[in-house]
């Protein structure tokens, strides 16, 4: 899934992680240099100096936009002139009662669920296979990771061309094996478009899942395989009973990244379908762009972005609370 | 990691931009003070247009000693983005482009655009009725320099092959499309992925179904309760049901690449397309030989709607006007007046940059098809501004979305009117 905005959201949600994971009481021993007070003052100054540029940038480009989006969401504002038409929660009412927005939320959640249902087993299977010694393993690993490295927009443009009706490669292949491709093309048929988009998303982001899982597999010690083999476990049993459970933390982290990416999905949808046909592939992000920069309803777009933010934070917090908890809790 | 890199790059870019903006801001304040520097943004960033406008600026500087014109030529999309930012910040170029209608009205309402009614009275008179789209409460805020009309562009070879002639009524049009299909051709291409090309069908159906008075009134008070708007949707619905469009039209882009709606017409994959006056130029850019359809290019007006109250010779169209920002020096008004002079308009036409609005310059158009279009435009009793522009972005966007749904069979003619009315009511 898209990681494009994970950094922001993750940064915004480390709070619950810390509070939930840490036992009550002092969190870390007071850190003090051997020199006493002077040293700590100096350390603080150093920290302040080194952190300040980053904080200023974050304040300017993350905190301030968030604050102005929230402010905007309470006004009717067309993008220019004074912002003085206060409408209270009217924009939120409009967003939440707009069928297009509720459908968009639905599409986001379909992508979240499908990603986990389809990309997880697929990624896991490929990672387990690629973890075995075989000829050309390096090449296959590289090939699988290539789509993830390709820029979203470029991937979108390529797939748009491949999926064109009549002239596209996809239609050609389907026709060649004797099947009938959809009359209006995959991206032009409302009932198929979301599936087509999901297919491209899977192609694009499966590589990341596999890479993460492969990295996780490296941390499974050789001795465990040997022990399992000594106990007479088959390869299959070793994978299912031993390796996959040990991969748990990696899988849960991937699910988290995937979820957040799905909720914020924008680039590929925008390039492939622009949210169409007939709003069949709108996401929350495409909705707020349409309302904001295209229609000049900045207040509505602001409200939609706040809703998106709240949904994202809520999901992240719940996930941290109930799923990631066991990974972040101190050992023992 | 990638995010951080991207963030850093963004920060650098923005820092760079704000430096530039600061520098420009400095210039503007100076300009406002002494009236010596005029900033002018336009979108003719290719030759010959770019060079022509540089020459125009140089000529203007020569006739007005001491005045300095800073010309910035940008690609159209870039200009639109930069203008949006300029409107938000209030730091606007002195002379810029306005598309008229509700968009302009909103700018006027926010006090961003200068009233030209008195300062450019002579020019306004020479342009005549075409300025209507750039008037708010009978005051004129923009001087249209190019005004075109929408119609059906067709491949004359294809029409000949299928033995059809340009239709004049909806029924004839449907019959013509059937004949084209029987000849193994795709009658029409449509870039409904971009929505506005689909909306043009509805707009034209409304121009043919509604009387001019109803349309003027609806634009003024944003009340769409007249039956003719539903009728327009029914006309479109009926046409869509005959399935005349290219496969995948719901996802087809308007004019990007050879597989777009314009590309399909340019490369001979479809027989016709409803599009604006820019179509020949767009098609030229989409073919390898740079010719587009060349001398196979034909044009006919949107057919009459049986029983409609609209004038069958009225046209749907739009264009671009020069506007002056509220804070601009007086010499900026002199510049836009000069831009609408007969000389500049003739040069504009000779360079195929658009369809000039000053009558004395219209005979300078050399392209025969565009010459015919000017004739159609000038013979029309009135030119209705594209409704999305006329009603403003908010209503326009909601309307275009719903019309696209109508094309997908997911909305009824009444739904379109309801969506428009709801957007209008919410706009307050």
Give a verbal description of the structure.
The complex is a heterodimer of chains A (332) and B (428). With 332 residues, chain A is mainly alpha-helical. Helices cover 71% and strands 0% of the residues of chain A. Chain A contains 15 helices and no strands. In chain A, helix 4 packs across helix 15, helix 10 (222-230) crosses helix 11 (235-246) and helix 14 packs antiparallel against helix 15. The longest helix of chain A has 36 residues, at 37-72. The two termini of chain A are 33 Å apart. By secondary structure, chain B is of the alpha/beta class. Chain B has helices spanning 2-34, 49-63, 76-89, 101-109, 121-127, 156-161, 170-182, 196-209, 212-221, 227-241, 261-266, 279-285, 330-339, 342-350, 368-379, 387-391, 393-407, 413-427; strands at 37-42, 68-73, 95-98, 135-136, 139-140, 143-149, 151-155, 186-188, 270-275, 297-300, 315-324, 383-385. In chain B, helix 10 (227-241) crosses helix 18 (413-427). The termini of chain B are far apart. The chains are: A mainly alpha (332), B alpha/beta (428). Chain A binds chain B through residues 3-8, 57, 61, 76, 78-82, 85, 94, 100, 161, 164-167, 183-185, 187-190, 193, 273-274, 276-279, 290-291, 293-297, and chain B through 2-4, 6-7, 10-11, 14, 84, 87-88, 90, 106-107, 109-112, 192-195, 247-252, 259, 392-394, 396-398, 401, 404-405, 408, 410, 426, 428.
Short structural description:
Chain A is built from 15 helices and no strands. With 332 residues, chain A is an all-alpha fold. Chain A starts with 5 loop residues before the first helix and ends with a helix.
What characteristics describe this protein?
heterodimer; A: 332 residues; mainly alpha; globular; B: 428 residues; D-Maltodextrin-Binding Protein, domain 2; 2 domains; four-stranded mixed sheet; disordered N terminus
């Amino acid at each position: 899934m898209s990681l494009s905005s994970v950094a922001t959201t993750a940064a915004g949600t480390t709070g619950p992680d810390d509070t939930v994971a840490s036992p009550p009481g002092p969190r870390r021993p007071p850190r003090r240099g051997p020199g006493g007070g002077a040293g700590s003052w100096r350390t603080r100054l150093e920290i302040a100096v080194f952190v300040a540029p980053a904080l200023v940038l974050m304040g300017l480009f993350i905190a301030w936009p968030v604050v102005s989006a929230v402010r905007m969401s309470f006004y009717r504002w067309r993008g220019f002139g004074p912002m003085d038409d206060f409408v209270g929660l009217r924009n939120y009412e409009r967003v939440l009662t707009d069928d297009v927005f509720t459908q968009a939320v639905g599409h986001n959640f379909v992508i979240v669920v499908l990603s986990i249902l389809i990309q997880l087993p697929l990624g896991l299977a490929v990672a387990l296979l690629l973890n075995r010694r075989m000829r050309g393993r390096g090449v296959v690993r590289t090939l699988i990771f290539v789509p993830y490295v390709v820029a979203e927009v470029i991937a979108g443009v390529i797939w748009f061309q491949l999926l064109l009706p009549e002239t596209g490669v996809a239609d050609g292949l389907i026709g060649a094996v004797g099947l009938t491709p959809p009359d209006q093309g995959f991206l032009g048929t409302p009932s198929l478009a979301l599936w087509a988009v999901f297919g491209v998303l899977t192609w694009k982001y499966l590589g990341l899942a596999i890479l993460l899982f492969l990295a996780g597999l490296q941390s499974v010690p050789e001795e465990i395989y040997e022990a399992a083999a000594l106990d007479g476990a088959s390869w299959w049993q070793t994978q299912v009973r031993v390796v996959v459970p040990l991969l748990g933390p990696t899988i849960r982290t991937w699910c988290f990244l995937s979820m957040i990416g799905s909720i914020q999905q924008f680039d590929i949808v925008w390039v492939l379908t622009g949210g169409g046909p007939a709003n069949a592939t709108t996401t929350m992000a495409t909705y707020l762009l349409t309302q904001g920069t295209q229609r000049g309803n900045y207040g509505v777009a602001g409200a939609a972005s706040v809703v998106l933010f709240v949904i994202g934070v809520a999901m992240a917090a719940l996930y941290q609370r109930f799923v990631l908890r066991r990974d972040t809790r101190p050992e023992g | 990691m990638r995010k951080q890199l991207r963030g850093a790059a963004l920060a650098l870019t923005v820092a760079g931009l704000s430096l530039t903006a600061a520098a420009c801001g400095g210039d503007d304040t100076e300009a406002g003070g002494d009236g010596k520097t005029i900033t002018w943004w336009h979108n003719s960033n290719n030759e010959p247009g770019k060079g022509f406008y540089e020459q125009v600026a140089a000529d203007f500087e020569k006739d007005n000693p001491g005045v300095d014109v800073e010309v910035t030529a940008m690609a159209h999309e870039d200009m639109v983005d930069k203008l949006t930012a300029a409107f938000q910040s209030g730091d606007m170029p002195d002379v810029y482009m306005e598309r008229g209608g509700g968009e302009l009205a909103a700018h006027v309402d926010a006090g961003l655009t200068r009233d030209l009614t008195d300062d450019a009275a002579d020019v306004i008179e020479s342009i005549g009725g075409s300025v209507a789209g750039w008037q708010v409460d009978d005051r004129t805020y923009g001087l249209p320099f190019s005004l075109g009309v929408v119609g059906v562009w067709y491949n004359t070879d294809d029409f000949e092959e299928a033995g059809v002639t340009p239709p004049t009524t909806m029924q004839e049009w449907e019959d013509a499309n059937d004949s084209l299909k029987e000849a193994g051709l795709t009658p029409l291409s449509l870039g409904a992925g971009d929505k506005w090309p689909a909306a043009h069908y509805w707009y034209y159906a409304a121009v043919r179904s509604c009387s001019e008075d109803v349309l003027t009134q609806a634009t003024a008070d944003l009340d769409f309760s007249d039956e003719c708007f539903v009728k327009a949707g029914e006309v479109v619905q009926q046409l869509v049901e005959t399935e005349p469009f290219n496969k995948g039209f719901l996802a087809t882009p308007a004019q990007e690449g050879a597989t777009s709606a314009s590309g399909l017409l340019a490369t001979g994959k479809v027989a016709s397309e409803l599009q604006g006056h820019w179509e020949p130029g767009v098609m030229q850019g989409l073919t390898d030989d740079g010719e587009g359809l060349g001398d196979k290019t034909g044009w006919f007006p949107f057919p009459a709607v049986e029983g409609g109250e609209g004038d069958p010779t009225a046209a749907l169209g739009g264009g671009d006007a020069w506007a002056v920002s509220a804070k601009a020096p007086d010499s900026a008004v002199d510049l836009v007046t000069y831009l609408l002079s007969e000389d500049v308009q003739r040069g504009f036409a000779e360079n195929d940059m658009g369809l000039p609005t000053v009558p004395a310059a219209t005979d300078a158009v050399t392209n025969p098809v565009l010459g015919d279009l000017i004739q159609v435009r000038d013979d029309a009793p009135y030119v209705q501004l594209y409704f999305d522009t006329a009603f403003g972005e908010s209503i326009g966007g909601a309307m275009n979305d719903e019309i696209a749904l109508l094309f997908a069979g997911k909305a009824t003619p009444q739904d379109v009117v309801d969506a428009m009315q709801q957007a209008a009511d919410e706009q307050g």
